[in-house]
Amino acid sequence: MRITSSFCWKSHSNISYFLLLVIVLVLVSASACSEHSHDNSMETPVRSEALVVIPSDYDDSVPTPLLLLLHGLTDTAENIDDHFAYGAEAEAYGFIMIAPQGSQDSNGFQFWNATDECCNLSGKKVDDVAYLSSVIEEAKSNYTIDASRIYIVGHSNGGFMAYRMVCELQNTFAAVVSYAGASFSDPSQCAYPDAIHALHIHGDQDELVSYVGDGPFPGAEETIVRWANRAGCDGNTFDEGPKLDLDANTPGDETFTRLYNHNCSTTSDIQLWTITNGVHNITPSPSFTKSIFNWLNPKKIK
To answer: How far apart are CA 240 and CA 80, in angstroms?
Structure first.
């Protein structure tokens, strides 16, 4: 298959836990790709190849869900997949997964230009909303994507970017998951008018993005309450859900879940998962990513 858009693909062929379809790629270069912006004020960064996972049972006659996975600041698509094993679960659940790469800052670290607070530390003029939108459109042009089941998941800076994407792109995503991320300090900057399924995951001992919000961005509870309010729910009332085992370093089911489902004017599923003693980047339990896919799998766009 020939890829003609302004980003590059990299098949996940070096993992042994599942088989991938063979993808023939034509790349701009052997290791990087150039991005072109229609906005002359924006920079055109060079990005590493995106990581693409195609389930072994992919059938182009059947619409397939798409997961967009966003790494954190200084991280890479390969690292977030290796750490959390999203690719293995994408195979198990029959999702196409694309993990794009952020652009590089002046220190050579990859980042997403998500909000004023996170994490464009070098002041680069990068339009990551436009870039990630082009990734989705390219996926639609090359695969049979179920447009009602496009999901975005991010960690840290990627979690900030995931929220920005759903704030700015209406009727694109069925659900968003942010782990150790946050959103705009000013809620009016997220003018998303429609309901969406939202899951926020956060360790209560996060040393970088405070759980309680004692920094330049909202805390975990304020963040999810905003999504509950946008979904027409009572953000001040919630039910306790089942406890989960997400952190391999803490014995037992250490994660508390909150379900914001009171007086809702929509059918959105709004949840907060709080990892007791969880830090910014936990060692995930075998059920961490599976729990996310279990939550995502039935969700469809409103």
So the answer is: 29
CB atoms within 10 A of CB 108: 7
* C-alpha distance from residue 44 to each of 87, 98, 102, 104 (Å): 29, 21, 12, 11
Mean pLDDT over 180-194 rounds to 86
> What is d(CA 206, CA 258) in angstroms, rounded to the nearest whole number?
18
pLDDT in tens, 251-295: 999 999 999 999 988 899 999 999 999 999 999 999 999 999 999
Residues 6+ apart with CB under 8 A from 213: 182, 219, 220, 221, 222
Sorted by sequence, the CB contacts under 8 Å of residue 251 that are 6+ apart come out as: none
What is the Cβ-side half-sphere exposure of residue 18, based on CA atoms within 13 angstroms?
A: 21
Q: How far, in Å, CA of 156 to CA of 202, rounded?
A: 10
Q: Is the model's pLDDT at 132 over the cut of 80? A: yes
Which residues have a Cβ under 8 Å from the Cβ of 38 and sit 6 or more positions away?
A: 130
Which tokens in the block code for residue 86?
A: 């999203």
